[in-house]
Amino acid sequence: QVQLQESGPGLVKPSETLSLICTVSGGSISSYYWNWIRQPAGKGLEWIGRIYSSGSTKYNPSLKSRVTMSVDTSNNQFSLKLRSVTAADTAVYYCASPVNTTGSYGMDVWGQGTTVTVSS
Amino acid sequence: SSELTQDPAVSVALGQTVRITCQGDSLKNYYASWYQQKPGQAPILVFYHQNNRPSGIPDRFSGSSSGNTASLTITGAQAEDEADYYCNSRDNSADHLVFGGGTKLTVL
Asked: Which chain B positions have a beta carbon within 8 Å of A104's beta carbon?
């Protein structure tokens, strides 16, 4: 079964770039599309964007100017870069995918999440 | 509109039925998906599309939709159902995803 694992620095300085990787195991990254979602402490879920194995992307309009996603099919990974971070970007970041929900936007496979704190 | 609106909190007596709702213009055109999230854990998909429940999700979870409102119904709520519930769908225009603000369910 497909599993996802986020990785990356837990602490990022203000104005710098947050970089995270999601590693896909148990399946091919070419078979699905891949989302990033974040959740500030005590708050709701926010969709950041998604990327297809082709490299095509869709981003949340509120973050679009600062977000870049990419895919590395050779390593079965996809990544998130968020530029010019502020404290408001402090959150748990999840990668997720609709692996078994063909034709739906429902995401049934999630990583465990990784906490990123923006602080000097 | 790209917003999905949920009641912040709902409570239900143990064993009773509760409906959690999600409102938004895009729901007239697209189905909602529903997620359960317990403290410190990643969300779990509990219902999606027109009438789909992921493997392993109890059949007391069901979904429905009418007009601009999607609903998740828990029939015979259990103590372990106490959690935050989020809906999500796509917006009407640009194929972006949106989440509702979440509903905290308390089982009394």
From this structure: 31, 33, 48-49, 52
**How far is B65 from B33, CA to CA, in rounded Å?**
11
- With CA atoms as reference, report the closest residue to A24 among A82, A92, A95: A95
* Residue B98 phi, psi (nearest 5): -135, 150
Inspect the interface and report whether the beta carbons of A113 and B42 lie closer than 8 Å. yes
Find the length of chain B: 108
10-residue averages of pLDDT along chain B (108 residues): 88 98 95 97 96 95 96 98 97 89 98
CA distance A112 to A69: 19
Give the separation between CA A36 and CA A96, rounded to whole angstroms.
6
- Residue B67: which H helix or E strand, with range? none
Q: What is the pLDDT of residue A103?
A: 80
Strands A114-118 and A11-12: parallel
Residues of B within an 8 Å Cβ radius of A = 30-31, 33, 35, 37, 42-45, 47-49, 52, 54-55, 86, 88-90, 94-102
Q: What percent of chain B has pLDDT above 70?
A: 98
Mean pLDDT of chain A: 96
Instruction: Give per-residue pLDDT as tens, A60-69.
Output: 999 999 999 9
